[in-house]
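Structure first, sequence second, as always.
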């Protein structure tokens, strides 16, 4: 709204579009930030999966190769292997890594769509509605299951 010198209020004709543009810019910044977070989380869970899974496999193999005279060390190796395997199963680092990769892709798609919309001269409420739908899809990508082969992607058209 614009207030002239006489105190009356006049609607700013560019006000709604300016607010739409500001909201779309905010969504793009959020998508950029969340994409980076999802990338770092995916890297972390990849490392956690390796750190827990590799020793479990290695120790299980070593326990299986132990001789009859080394029953106690073999039992300790098997116990350590089981502990690593249980930790990997409990944390589900492989599932968390895939979820963060899905989310990273969804946030990147939102960021790209927002950038394209901001390049337009005129924006509409439908543009913002579409981006908010993609934001919701990006948020739900953390919880979604892996898509089955031949199914549609997580983000709608």
């Amino acid at each position: 709204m614009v207030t002239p010198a006489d105190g009356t209020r006049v609607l700013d004709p560019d006000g709604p579009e300016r607010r739409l543009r500001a909201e779309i810019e905010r969504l793009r910044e959020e998508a950029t930030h969340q994409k980076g977070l999802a990338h770092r989380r995916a890297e972390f869970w990849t490392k956690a999966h390796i750190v827990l899974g590799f020793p479990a496999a290695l120790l299980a193999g070593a326990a299986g190769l132990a001789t009859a005279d080394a029953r106690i060390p073999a039992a300790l190796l098997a116990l350590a292997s089981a502990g690593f395997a249980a930790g990997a199963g409990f944390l589900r680092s492989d599932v968390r890594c895939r979820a963060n990769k899905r989310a990273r892709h969804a946030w990147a798609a939102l960021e790209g769509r927002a950038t394209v919309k901001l390049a337009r001269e005129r924006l509409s409420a439908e543009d913002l509605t579409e981006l908010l739908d993609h934001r919701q899809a990006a948020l739900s990508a953390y919880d979604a299951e892996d898509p089955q082969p031949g199914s549609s992607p997580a983000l709608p058209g």
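Margin note: The radius of gyration is 26 Å.
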